[in-house]
Specification:
Number of strands: 0
Low-confidence stretches: none
Mean pLDDT: 87
Order of helices and strands: HH
Helix content: 55-70%
Shape: rod-shaped
Number of helices: 2
Largest sheet: none
Structural class: mainly alpha
Strand content: under 5%
Radius of gyration: 16 Å
Distance between the termini: 13 Å
């Protein structure tokens, strides 16, 4: 159970990071000044949440010992 949850947390974290960088944060136009902002205003926040989820998987793996 511990390995499954840890793996899922890592995959969800990386998924959020990739989604927020590629689909939400990257502008789909050339290098003009009008395209310098991300497409979604909170894309950086979603990226940070992905990092927190991926790093907290290590905390979960070391703290959770399973049923006794």
């Amino acid at each position: 159970m511990r390995k499954i949850v840890t793996t899922l947390m890592i995959l969800v974290g990386f998924g959020l990071m990739v989604l927020s960088y590629t689909a939400l944060g990257t502008p789909q136009c050339n290098t003009s000044v009008a395209c310098s902002n991300p497409r979604v205003a909170f894309a950086a926040g979603i990226f940070v949440v992905g990092i927190v989820v991926a790093f907290s998987s290590a905390i979960f793996y070391s703290v959770y010992k399973g049923p006794r």
